[in-house]
Amino acid sequence: QVLLVESGGGLVQAGGSLRLSCAASGRSFSSYAMGWFRQAPGKERDFVAVISRSGDNTLYVDSVKGRFTISRDNAKNTVYLQMNSLKPEDTALYYCAAAVVLGSYSAPKQTGQYNYWGQGTQVTVSS
What is the pLDDT of residues 102-113, one digit of tens each? Predict the structure, then answer.
């Protein structure tokens, strides 16, 4: 079992930055691929970014490429999402998730591939 707790959300002006953190409790954090998803009101939960167990593979949705960076610190059981050049359309509830994967390079992008979810942290970008 893994408990995920997100932090770092808030209200920021367009063009600003935020750094989200997701702290994981439990064992074997390095066994999980870690992803970030977001959900705006009235919309589905969408993939944002994922990092493999090893940290060697990262994938992003096209709309955040070049602006967001996902990273992990396995010694601290924490995954991060650095968000720069924020836009109003980035406004959403951001979720951290953990996926049990076999390959160290695996980087799943589908919500159904994830086994554990956090409660979310709100990001609001004003224009």
Answer: 888 999 999 999
